[in-house]
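Why this split exists: single-chain examples teach little about how molecules sit against one another. For that reason, every record in the complexes split bundles all components of an assembly together and asks for one structure covering all of them. Below is a record exactly as it appears in the raw files.
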Amino acid sequence: MNGAGRSYVRAAFAPVEPPPPAHGNAMSRFAASLFATPLNFAMTALSVGMILLIVPPFLDFMIFDATWHGTSRADCLPNAGACWPFIKAKFGQFVYGFYPIDERWRPNLAFALGAALLTPLLIPSAPFKWLNSVLFFGVYPVVAFVLLTGGNLDLRNFFLGRFIDWQAAAGFGLAAGLRWTFWVDFFASAFVLTTLVLAGTMLLGASLRTAFVSCVTLFASLGALLLAVDLDFGLRSVETHAWGGFLVTMVVAMTGIVVSLPLGILLALGRRSELPVVRFLSIVFIEFWRGVPVITVLFFATYMLPLFLPSGVSFDTLLRALIGVALFSAAYMAEVVRGGLQSIPRGQYEAASALGLGYWRTMSTVILPQALALVVPGIVNNFIGLFKDTTLVLIVAIFDLLGQLRASFSDPNWATPVTLYTGFAFAGIVYFVCCFAMSRYALFVERRVNVAGRR
Amino acid sequence: MAVAAEGSRRRRIGTIAADPRLRSFLLQLALLLLVVWLGWAFFDNARQNLANQKIATGFGFLSETAGFGVSQSLIPFAESSTYGRAFVVGLLNTLLVSGLGVVFATILGFAVGIARMSSNVLLARLAGAYVETLRNLPLLFQILFWYLAVLGTLPSPRASEPVLGSIYFTSRGILMPRLVLESGSAFVFAALALAIVAIVLLWQRTGRGGGVAATLIKGLASLALIVILPAIAFVAAGAPISLDLPELKGFNFVGGLRVNPEFLALLFALSTYTASFIAEIVRAGFLAVPRGQTEAAASLGLRRASTLRLIIAPQAMRLIVPPLTSQYLNLTKNSSLAAAIGYPDFFYVFAGTTLNQTGQAIEIIAVTMAVYLAISLVTSLLMNWYNRAVALKGA
């Protein structure tokens, strides 16, 4: 305590020395990094050369030499830059494909709804995450389906209808797009199946209440879903082959994410399960779809799957492609989720077990909330890959944004030397902006997760 | 009494659900039955559908005449060749484009990754811009861009000007002189190999040091070896190697070596796209080596280049190899996008043209998937072997 007696302890702060020359101000550091050594100088020269080679011609093409106004190819021919009137004329096709012009409010509404539900889901501090997820992953796909296709599916048979011919017994009946025979079938089937499940539960001695509640929930949500697609909302039916452009890109990407997340979680849990059969089947499923090119999966869904289904059951082309997308995106998602599951310490499982929680309760209330929060960046990155892979549907003759772009090149009304470059510039910007924004978002969440982990 | 008896019976039945082993057994049995039933239903439906649509089954089609031509083939292929041969042609083309793609993507990826870590701000930013741009555009978009917007807009064969004597960049591909190897050319290659072996031995045996003069003499000797030995063999064997130059005849070129635009577009796009991912892997690998390693090397008196080569790179490689493997696999799988531009790779020839002509979707798609799975498996086996070689010993 008596520091004054120790002569080697400084009594005052030492004077601040000037920084060494190498760590001067930002400008001199910058200059040093560019010109310090001959090698550095050569690198700088090389970089400047490359920038000069790329940037001015790019800007010239996009802005300074571009044609901004006009209505036909004749307006673009004199200029060496981009032909933006071409994009303006084709914009409808690039966004909606051949979706009827009077009905374009429907995809617009679907886009807007999706954005309105997705935005709060992506903002970490926004409330009601659980409700928001249910709305986005459960309700939104049905709403979007009805909006885009027009719904009114005219369902005929549910389950018992395969064995009993209700129609022969009661004749046809159609009200508000609903065929009452189907709904009689549905309720009868629900009743019979619930009774069977309850009987099984009683036999095994498990909780009757849980079984009953699960059955009722399942059939209620299934019924709501079927009712939504069966009801006649007065929307004109739009066949999927009229869809195209960015709309198809979004439909494929959204289906991928909405299906792959729940399925991927199940597969990841299956892969880490203690039951050998479940584990084996999960591994086979995941590794198989990950090991083959995405395009073979699309070919599988387009050409092979129809042969595996009972004759008479046929899907439309887009739906087949969507099934393929769901298969491989679930497999990729499973690996992302598995990474999160593996990073949860054993102590969490043991603590949950000590509290007497069963497997599903442990997973849904303890493990998954932590694991999923950790892998949000991985999920987003996975989604970027999926978004880029949506372009592959053009190989199975579905016209997404890239497909529409390619088709538009053959329009003789817009045949100019710059049409090709203009089209690529436009589509490139769209894809880049989407993917870049997502990758920045992933980075943002990653930093957040890291900060939270360090606390 | 009756109440007690019923209670015990209920407990006995209740143990079925309460016993975890029995419960998990029942669950797995149910799952297995479901999968088997699904498989059987698929099989049964497929059998009926194939019979209804009168589609042949089995692999007999492989020995039938294909009746189509391919634009690029490493082995002789004609329209009268069989589907089996088309299968091999496609497979070789896939291996060619993936193999070259892996080499180029690795070189470019390492260069960009290292440039991203450069202390030169401009270079680092430029490399960063490369990575961000290429990674955020779909690969198919890039393939189509190279194919339609870059290679497709080259001048027609008649309008093209020769570069470096007799290399022509045309919309029908790049034409360059072709080496014509006659009998006896093996001697020249043997002489070349001999010269390389001799040079390696020379440098290994004499060791380092000896000053500038010794290095200069050794360098000159090596140069002489690699030029003179093959030259002697060339003359002795009666000039067995000659150049076949492309010549414009009518609307197109004859002779020379023609590289198809489809192949070039696919190779460019695959290499540059994959390079952007490899660059990030390389950067992450190098940044993960602790700074203390660099500092320790510096305090031992190692130069910057030696530090990088002897201390940093070996440690970084351990982190780089596993993700690099998956990039190589991705590149190979992505080469199937050739179908979009008509490069006759395995997918295009087999799952495209052959499927169209025979209609045997099940066999063909199953075989296609199996082939890609096999390629994946072999690549990951090779890379795992390499990974073991660079991994920490005894760890």
